[in-house]
Specification:
388 residues; alpha/beta; 10 helices; 30% helix
Length: 388
């Protein structure tokens, strides 16, 4: 473990007497530990967090009672909350005075999930990210890097979860320069492909690695623009790293496959495939899911992943497509410990990946149905219309 990074420092649950197993689970240092002991600890931590929210949230108290009755009838036992619930309701299990951070899920338009975090919850989630970065050797306090954030430039009152996350990820290596793909104009944000190209060309001539973080669509549009302009390929310095997040939602007509995208990045920017990773996360469920070097999204030890039938919400076996259901007892501020996402996915056993990780992994298959609700990626994609 890297002892110099403050995000790996200890953090305490709000009430150690009521949440000892939550503390123990979130203190596990191996992000991908798996076995009966970890399963037993996870179940005990879930029991604690369900009791915690049941005592503090009238909404969850009623939900939990109804779930227990359903469980006796032989159906699913987890108290499910759909992510869209948080777009219409603010449900807290802590006093407002204990809110440490307020983030939203969506962009410039559409309904937004309003998520509130106490200090334990957000610091615990950040420590999970730090542990995965540390395991991969991506915490480099003595190595400067140049950052290209394929996301929103900070602006007053900007509370987007994606912007918060991308800026947080800059803490793991000191910044020499930082550039943004979505520039703050003072009246919103605009995609600046020429600024991105100029930054990449400048970074290619520098002597420090580059880290590209954020929406993959903007990088794809940049590569397309470089090719259209007849610009020769670049070679970013050795040790460069690309971490995507946010997906292609709202831009499906221009989405390309992961293999093609990664191949073009290697061809035009010189970054090898194993240094290109996608991620999955949401403001409603801040557990980090980061691709292994085989490009699979493995569940870390602090969460469990299930797939639910789109008709009945019954749990589905490995390989069957349904709603992505994410569970973790880390969150004490909002009863979002068991969230059903709007994403369709399939779950697979760890050994089917072939990498060194043994935890189950999931594949995303897009969003379920058609909705007017817009995620960060949807709002961002709208800024690209006419730019390609």
């Amino acid at each position: 473990m890297n002892p110099m990074n403050p995000h790996l420092a200890p953090v305490d649950v709000p009430d150690p007497a009521l949440l000892p197993r939550v503390q123990e689970l979130c203190d596990l240092t191996d992000p991908y530990a798996v076995g009966p002991a970890e399963d037993e600890l996870f179940a005990a931590a879930m029991a604690e967090i369900n009791a915690w929210h049941g005592e503090r949230s009238p909404f969850f108290h009623r939900l939990h009672e109804a779930t227990e009755e359903t469980a006796r009838a032989g159906a699913f036992t987890a108290p499910l909350v759909h992510a869209n619930f948080f777009k219409r309701h603010e449900v807290l299990s802590i006093p407002r005075d204990d809110v440490h951070l307020h983030l939203t899920s969506s962009g410039t338009t559409g309904q937004k999930s309003q998520m509130f975090f106490d200090e334990w919850t957000i610091r615990s989630a950040q420590r999970m990210v730090a542990r995965i970065f540390d395991r991969n050797g991506w915490i480099t306090p003595d190595q400067e890097v140049n950052y290209l954030l394929s996301s929103y430039q900070p602006a007053p009152d900007l509370k987007l979860g994606t912007s918060f996350t991308d800026n947080y990820l800059c803490d793991f290596a000191p910044a020499r320069q930082v550039e943004y793909a979505l520039r703050n104009t003072g009246n919103g944000h605009e995609f600046d492909p020429f600024g991105v190209i100029a930054a990449l060309r400048r970074y290619a001539d520098d002597d420090v690695p580059v880290r590209i973080l954020g929406f993959p669509a903007f990088i794809w549009f940049t590569l397309e623009r470089m090719r259209a302009m007849g610009l020769p390929p670049l070679t970013l310095p050795e040790g460069s790293l690309i971490l995507f997040g946010g997906g292609w939602k709202g831009n499906a007509d221009q989405q390309i496959g992961k293999d093609e995208l990664y191949g073009r990045i290697t061809e035009q920017l010189g970054v090898p495939s194993e240094r290109i990773r996608d991620t999955f996360g949401s403001v409603e469920h801040c557990i980090p899911y980061i691709e292994c070097d085989h490009h699979r999204l493995h569940a870390p030890v602090w969460s469990r992943v299930f797939i639910r039938s789109t008709r009945t919400l019954e749990p589905l076996p490995y390989g069957e497509r349904g709603y992505l259901h994410l569970v973790s007892p880390y969150i004490t501020s909002v009863p979002a410990q068991s969230v059903v996402m709007g994403d369709l996915a399939t779950l697979h056993p760890g050994e089917e990946c072939g990498c060194e990780l043994n935890t189950p992994w999931f594949t995303l298959h897009g969003r379920a149905g058609v909705s007017r609700n817009k995620s960060c990626a949807v709002a961002a994609a709208e800024l690209m219309k006419g730019m390609s």
